[in-house]
Specification:
- The chain has eight helices and 16 strands.
- The chain is of the alpha+beta class and about 350 residues long.
- The protein has two domains: about 120 residues, HIT-like (HIT family, subunit A); about 160 residues, HIT family, subunit A (2-Layer Sandwich).
- It has a ten-stranded antiparallel sheet with strand order 4-5-6-8-7-12-13-11-10-9, sandwiched between helices.
- About 35% of the residues are buried.
- The protein binds zinc ion (ZN).
- The site of zinc ion has 5 residues, from loops.
Protein backbone atom coordinates (compact mmCIF):
# COMPACT_ATOMS: atom_id res chain seq x y z
CA UNK A 1 0.00 0.00 0.00
CA UNK A 2 1.40 3.38 -1.01
CA UNK A 3 1.53 6.26 1.43
CA UNK A 4 3.07 8.66 -1.04
CA UNK A 5 4.60 11.83 0.35
CA UNK A 6 6.46 14.43 -1.71
CA UNK A 7 8.52 17.05 0.08
CA UNK A 8 8.55 20.48 -1.55
CA UNK A 9 11.24 23.04 -0.90
CA UNK A 10 10.51 26.69 -1.50
CA UNK A 11 13.36 29.24 -1.48
CA UNK A 12 13.14 33.00 -1.04
CA UNK A 13 15.05 35.97 0.36
CA UNK A 14 13.79 36.67 3.87
CA UNK A 15 13.57 40.35 4.96
CA UNK A 16 13.62 39.29 8.62
CA UNK A 17 17.05 37.75 8.05
CA UNK A 18 18.67 40.55 6.06
CA UNK A 19 17.33 39.06 2.82
CA UNK A 20 19.34 35.89 3.25
CA UNK A 21 18.01 32.95 1.26
CA UNK A 22 15.83 30.69 3.40
CA UNK A 23 13.98 27.46 2.71
CA UNK A 24 10.46 26.50 3.63
CA UNK A 25 9.34 22.89 3.47
CA UNK A 26 5.89 21.59 2.70
CA UNK A 27 4.53 18.15 1.96
CA UNK A 28 2.08 16.81 -0.59
CA UNK A 29 0.45 13.61 0.64
CA UNK A 30 -1.68 11.26 -1.45
CA UNK A 31 -4.49 9.23 0.11
CA UNK A 32 -3.79 5.54 -0.54
CA UNK A 33 -7.41 4.80 -1.45
CA UNK A 34 -8.90 7.83 -3.17
CA UNK A 35 -5.81 9.65 -4.40
CA UNK A 36 -7.06 12.81 -2.64
CA UNK A 37 -4.09 15.10 -2.08
CA UNK A 38 -3.39 17.19 0.98
CA UNK A 39 -0.72 19.80 1.57
CA UNK A 40 0.88 19.98 4.99
CA UNK A 41 2.44 23.36 5.53
CA UNK A 42 5.34 24.31 7.70
CA UNK A 43 3.42 27.13 9.36
CA UNK A 44 3.51 26.97 13.14
CA UNK A 45 0.16 28.07 14.57
CA UNK A 46 0.08 29.26 18.13
CA UNK A 47 -2.26 27.50 20.54
CA UNK A 48 -5.73 28.83 19.74
CA UNK A 49 -7.66 30.70 22.38
CA UNK A 50 -11.00 29.22 23.41
CA UNK A 51 -13.82 31.01 21.58
CA UNK A 52 -16.74 32.22 23.68
CA UNK A 53 -19.90 31.12 21.87
CA UNK A 54 -22.37 32.00 24.63
CA UNK A 55 -23.88 34.88 22.65
CA UNK A 56 -24.39 32.64 19.60
CA UNK A 57 -26.16 30.12 21.83
CA UNK A 58 -28.45 32.74 23.38
CA UNK A 59 -29.21 34.53 20.10
CA UNK A 60 -30.21 31.27 18.43
CA UNK A 61 -32.42 30.02 21.27
CA UNK A 62 -35.65 32.00 20.59
CA UNK A 63 -35.82 30.85 16.95
CA UNK A 64 -34.91 27.22 17.49
CA UNK A 65 -37.33 24.67 15.98
CA UNK A 66 -35.62 21.80 17.81
CA UNK A 67 -36.19 22.92 21.41
CA UNK A 68 -38.52 20.55 23.28
CA UNK A 69 -41.33 23.10 23.80
CA UNK A 70 -42.07 23.28 20.08
CA UNK A 71 -40.28 20.48 18.26
CA UNK A 72 -43.36 18.24 18.16
CA UNK A 73 -45.48 21.03 16.64
CA UNK A 74 -43.08 22.38 14.02
CA UNK A 75 -41.16 19.39 12.70
CA UNK A 76 -42.59 17.29 9.83
CA UNK A 77 -43.66 13.64 9.95
CA UNK A 78 -42.74 10.79 7.63
CA UNK A 79 -45.32 9.71 5.09
CA UNK A 80 -47.06 6.43 5.99
CA UNK A 81 -46.61 5.49 2.32
CA UNK A 82 -42.86 5.29 2.92
CA UNK A 83 -42.19 4.28 6.50
CA UNK A 84 -43.95 2.45 9.33
CA UNK A 85 -43.58 5.35 11.77
CA UNK A 86 -44.29 9.04 11.46
CA UNK A 87 -41.28 9.79 13.67
CA UNK A 88 -38.57 7.69 15.25
CA UNK A 89 -37.76 8.36 18.87
CA UNK A 90 -35.47 7.00 21.53
CA UNK A 91 -34.58 8.68 24.82
CA UNK A 92 -34.33 12.39 24.03
CA UNK A 93 -33.64 11.75 20.34
CA UNK A 94 -36.26 12.42 17.69
CA UNK A 95 -35.81 11.58 13.99
CA UNK A 96 -38.02 13.53 11.57
CA UNK A 97 -37.96 14.39 7.85
CA UNK A 98 -35.64 17.17 6.78
CA UNK A 99 -38.00 19.78 5.29
CA UNK A 100 -35.12 20.96 3.09
CA UNK A 101 -33.71 17.63 1.92
CA UNK A 102 -30.66 17.14 -0.28
CA UNK A 103 -32.10 13.98 -1.71
CA UNK A 104 -35.12 11.69 -1.84
CA UNK A 105 -34.56 10.55 1.75
CA UNK A 106 -33.31 13.27 4.03
CA UNK A 107 -33.93 13.18 7.77
CA UNK A 108 -32.78 15.01 10.86
CA UNK A 109 -32.28 13.52 14.29
CA UNK A 110 -32.61 16.06 17.07
CA UNK A 111 -30.24 14.68 19.68
CA UNK A 112 -31.17 16.39 22.92
CA UNK A 113 -33.71 18.41 24.83
CA UNK A 114 -30.93 20.89 25.63
CA UNK A 115 -30.54 23.66 23.07
CA UNK A 116 -26.78 23.62 23.39
CA UNK A 117 -24.45 20.85 24.48
CA UNK A 118 -20.75 21.66 24.79
CA UNK A 119 -18.27 19.22 23.26
CA UNK A 120 -17.26 17.87 26.65
CA UNK A 121 -20.88 17.45 27.80
CA UNK A 122 -22.02 14.85 25.27
CA UNK A 123 -22.74 11.54 27.01
CA UNK A 124 -22.82 7.95 25.74
CA UNK A 125 -26.63 7.95 26.11
CA UNK A 126 -27.08 11.08 23.96
CA UNK A 127 -24.96 9.65 21.17
CA UNK A 128 -26.27 6.09 21.37
CA UNK A 129 -29.94 7.12 21.31
CA UNK A 130 -29.43 9.56 18.43
CA UNK A 131 -27.43 7.09 16.33
CA UNK A 132 -29.93 4.29 17.01
CA UNK A 133 -32.77 6.54 15.79
CA UNK A 134 -30.83 7.18 12.56
CA UNK A 135 -30.12 3.46 12.13
CA UNK A 136 -33.77 2.57 12.60
CA UNK A 137 -34.74 5.13 9.95
CA UNK A 138 -32.13 3.86 7.48
CA UNK A 139 -33.15 0.23 8.08
CA UNK A 140 -36.74 1.06 7.19
CA UNK A 141 -35.88 3.09 4.09
CA UNK A 142 -34.01 0.22 2.45
CA UNK A 143 -37.00 -2.13 2.79
CA UNK A 144 -39.16 -0.11 0.41
CA UNK A 145 -36.38 1.58 -1.55
CA UNK A 146 -33.69 -1.03 -2.27
CA UNK A 147 -31.96 1.46 -4.56
CA UNK A 148 -31.22 3.88 -1.69
CA UNK A 149 -27.81 2.30 -1.13
CA UNK A 150 -25.73 5.37 -0.30
CA UNK A 151 -26.56 5.73 3.37
CA UNK A 152 -24.84 8.10 5.72
CA UNK A 153 -25.25 9.69 9.13
CA UNK A 154 -23.75 13.16 9.23
CA UNK A 155 -23.09 15.84 11.80
CA UNK A 156 -22.40 19.55 11.35
CA UNK A 157 -21.66 20.81 14.84
CA UNK A 158 -22.24 24.57 15.06
CA UNK A 159 -22.39 27.21 12.28
CA UNK A 160 -18.64 27.12 11.65
CA UNK A 161 -19.18 23.55 10.42
CA UNK A 162 -22.09 24.56 8.19
CA UNK A 163 -24.97 24.08 10.58
CA UNK A 164 -27.76 26.64 10.45
CA UNK A 165 -29.16 25.40 13.79
CA UNK A 166 -27.16 25.38 17.02
CA UNK A 167 -29.32 22.71 18.68
CA UNK A 168 -27.42 19.38 18.32
CA UNK A 169 -28.76 17.33 15.43
CA UNK A 170 -27.61 14.69 12.96
CA UNK A 171 -28.47 14.63 9.26
CA UNK A 172 -29.24 11.33 7.61
CA UNK A 173 -29.17 10.56 3.90
CA UNK A 174 -30.30 7.46 2.04
CA UNK A 175 -29.82 7.98 -1.65
CA UNK A 176 -29.69 6.21 -4.97
CA UNK A 177 -27.13 8.80 -6.12
CA UNK A 178 -23.48 8.70 -5.15
CA UNK A 179 -21.61 11.66 -3.71
CA UNK A 180 -18.14 12.59 -4.93
CA UNK A 181 -16.73 10.89 -1.83
CA UNK A 182 -18.50 7.59 -2.48
CA UNK A 183 -17.45 7.74 -6.12
CA UNK A 184 -13.79 8.26 -5.29
CA UNK A 185 -13.87 5.55 -2.60
CA UNK A 186 -15.60 2.94 -4.76
CA UNK A 187 -13.32 3.54 -7.72
CA UNK A 188 -10.33 3.36 -5.35
CA UNK A 189 -11.63 0.07 -3.94
CA UNK A 190 -11.99 -1.46 -7.41
CA UNK A 191 -8.54 -0.30 -8.45
CA UNK A 192 -6.96 -1.62 -5.24
CA UNK A 193 -8.64 -5.01 -5.56
CA UNK A 194 -7.56 -5.35 -9.16
CA UNK A 195 -3.96 -4.46 -8.38
CA UNK A 196 -3.60 -6.38 -5.13
CA UNK A 197 -6.14 -9.21 -5.34
CA UNK A 198 -7.28 -8.45 -1.82
CA UNK A 199 -9.81 -6.05 -0.26
CA UNK A 200 -8.58 -2.60 0.73
CA UNK A 201 -9.97 -2.02 4.21
CA UNK A 202 -8.49 -5.02 6.07
CA UNK A 203 -5.16 -4.37 4.31
CA UNK A 204 -5.36 -0.69 5.27
CA UNK A 205 -5.92 -1.45 8.97
CA UNK A 206 -3.18 -4.10 8.95
CA UNK A 207 -0.74 -1.74 7.24
CA UNK A 208 -1.50 1.15 9.62
CA UNK A 209 -1.00 -1.25 12.56
CA UNK A 210 2.32 -2.39 11.10
CA UNK A 211 3.54 1.19 10.55
CA UNK A 212 2.20 2.21 13.97
CA UNK A 213 2.48 5.99 13.42
CA UNK A 214 -1.17 6.86 12.87
CA UNK A 215 -3.16 4.15 14.62
CA UNK A 216 -4.80 5.51 17.75
CA UNK A 217 -6.55 2.40 19.04
CA UNK A 218 -8.04 -0.80 17.70
CA UNK A 219 -10.63 -3.15 19.10
CA UNK A 220 -12.29 -6.18 17.57
CA UNK A 221 -14.97 -3.88 16.13
CA UNK A 222 -13.36 -0.52 15.31
CA UNK A 223 -9.89 0.69 14.39
CA UNK A 224 -9.25 4.40 14.92
CA UNK A 225 -6.66 5.86 12.55
CA UNK A 226 -5.53 9.42 11.80
CA UNK A 227 -5.81 9.81 8.03
CA UNK A 228 -2.44 9.98 6.27
CA UNK A 229 -3.76 12.65 3.85
CA UNK A 230 -6.47 14.38 5.90
CA UNK A 231 -9.61 15.92 4.43
CA UNK A 232 -9.51 18.67 7.10
CA UNK A 233 -7.09 20.18 9.64
CA UNK A 234 -6.94 16.60 10.84
CA UNK A 235 -9.13 13.68 9.99
CA UNK A 236 -9.80 10.67 12.21
CA UNK A 237 -11.14 7.54 10.55
CA UNK A 238 -13.01 4.84 12.45
CA UNK A 239 -13.05 1.63 10.40
CA UNK A 240 -15.99 -0.49 11.49
CA UNK A 241 -15.35 -4.21 11.11
CA UNK A 242 -18.02 -6.89 11.38
CA UNK A 243 -20.81 -4.78 9.86
CA UNK A 244 -21.89 -3.89 6.37
CA UNK A 245 -25.23 -2.13 6.77
CA UNK A 246 -26.60 0.12 9.54
CA UNK A 247 -28.71 -2.70 11.00
CA UNK A 248 -25.51 -4.72 11.59
CA UNK A 249 -24.36 -2.23 14.23
CA UNK A 250 -24.66 -4.41 17.35
CA UNK A 251 -24.72 -3.08 20.90
CA UNK A 252 -21.03 -3.90 21.24
CA UNK A 253 -20.11 -2.07 18.03
CA UNK A 254 -22.30 0.87 19.09
CA UNK A 255 -20.54 1.07 22.47
CA UNK A 256 -17.14 1.17 20.74
CA UNK A 257 -18.37 3.74 18.22
CA UNK A 258 -19.86 6.02 20.86
CA UNK A 259 -16.88 5.90 23.16
CA UNK A 260 -14.47 6.62 20.29
CA UNK A 261 -16.53 9.61 19.10
CA UNK A 262 -16.68 11.00 22.65
CA UNK A 263 -12.89 10.62 23.00
CA UNK A 264 -12.39 12.59 19.78
CA UNK A 265 -14.80 15.35 20.88
CA UNK A 266 -12.85 15.68 24.14
CA UNK A 267 -9.61 15.92 22.17
CA UNK A 268 -11.05 18.62 19.88
CA UNK A 269 -12.19 20.55 22.94
CA UNK A 270 -8.78 20.16 24.59
CA UNK A 271 -7.04 22.02 21.77
CA UNK A 272 -9.62 24.82 21.97
CA UNK A 273 -11.38 23.96 18.71
CA UNK A 274 -15.14 23.97 19.05
CA UNK A 275 -16.68 22.80 15.82
CA UNK A 276 -16.46 19.72 13.57
CA UNK A 277 -18.01 17.65 10.78
CA UNK A 278 -18.61 13.93 11.08
CA UNK A 279 -19.89 11.37 8.59
CA UNK A 280 -20.58 7.66 9.03
CA UNK A 281 -20.70 6.04 5.60
CA UNK A 282 -22.48 2.84 4.57
CA UNK A 283 -22.84 1.41 1.09
CA UNK A 284 -25.47 -1.30 0.93
CA UNK A 285 -24.79 -4.54 -0.96
CA UNK A 286 -21.19 -3.70 -1.80
CA UNK A 287 -18.83 -6.32 -0.38
CA UNK A 288 -15.70 -4.21 -0.87
CA UNK A 289 -17.07 -1.29 1.14
CA UNK A 290 -16.44 -1.30 4.89
CA UNK A 291 -18.57 1.13 6.88
CA UNK A 292 -16.43 3.86 8.34
CA UNK A 293 -16.58 7.19 10.05
CA UNK A 294 -14.58 10.37 9.57
CA UNK A 295 -14.38 13.36 11.90
CA UNK A 296 -12.65 16.59 10.93
CA UNK A 297 -12.53 19.63 13.20
CA UNK A 298 -13.45 22.98 11.70
CA UNK A 299 -11.10 25.85 12.17
CA UNK A 300 -11.22 29.60 11.68
CA UNK A 301 -8.12 31.61 12.19
CA UNK A 302 -7.79 34.70 14.38
CA UNK A 303 -7.87 37.67 14.30
CA UNK A 304 -10.38 37.87 11.38
CA UNK A 305 -12.05 34.45 11.67
CA UNK A 306 -10.35 33.53 8.42
CA UNK A 307 -11.93 30.46 6.87
CA UNK A 308 -9.78 27.36 6.45
CA UNK A 309 -11.56 26.85 3.11
CA UNK A 310 -9.78 29.08 0.65
CA UNK A 311 -9.35 28.66 -3.11
CA UNK A 312 -7.34 25.48 -2.61
CA UNK A 313 -10.21 23.50 -1.06
CA UNK A 314 -13.03 25.35 -2.79
CA UNK A 315 -11.74 25.31 -6.37
CA UNK A 316 -8.86 22.83 -6.40
CA UNK A 317 -10.42 20.35 -3.91
CA UNK A 318 -7.04 20.29 -2.15
CA UNK A 319 -6.83 20.17 1.63
CA UNK A 320 -4.41 22.48 3.42
CA UNK A 321 -3.36 21.86 6.98
CA UNK A 322 -0.54 22.61 9.37
CA UNK A 323 -1.08 19.50 11.49
CA UNK A 324 0.98 16.36 10.80
CA UNK A 325 -1.14 13.23 11.13
CA UNK A 326 1.55 11.38 13.12
CA UNK A 327 1.74 14.21 15.68
CA UNK A 328 -2.06 14.36 15.94
CA UNK A 329 -2.03 10.62 16.62
CA UNK A 330 0.36 11.05 19.55
CA UNK A 331 -1.80 13.84 20.97
CA UNK A 332 -5.11 12.02 20.66
CA UNK A 333 -3.91 8.64 21.98
CA UNK A 334 -4.14 9.56 25.68
CA UNK A 335 -7.86 10.29 25.16
CA UNK A 336 -8.34 6.65 24.15
CA UNK A 337 -6.14 5.31 26.94
CA UNK A 338 -8.93 4.31 29.28
ZN1 LIG B 1 -33.03 24.53 20.53
Amino acid sequence: MDFTKVTKISRFLDPSQGYAEVQRLSEVRVDPLTGHTTRILDFPIKQLVKVDISSLVEKSRPFCPFCPEIRDQVTPKFSPNLLSKERFTRGEALCVPNPFPYDENGAVTIMTYDHYVALSDFTPDILRDALMCCIEFLGEVIINQPGAIYQSINWNYLPLAGSSIVHPHLQIMASSSSTNYYTSVTSGLSRYKEENRSPFWPDFVAEEKRIGERIIAATHDISWIVAFAPMGAFDIIGVISNASKPADISDTIMDALVSGILNILKFIDSINLYSFNMSIYFLINNESFTPHLRICPRVSLPPFDTSEINYMRMLHNETLTTMKSEEVCNEVKPFFAS
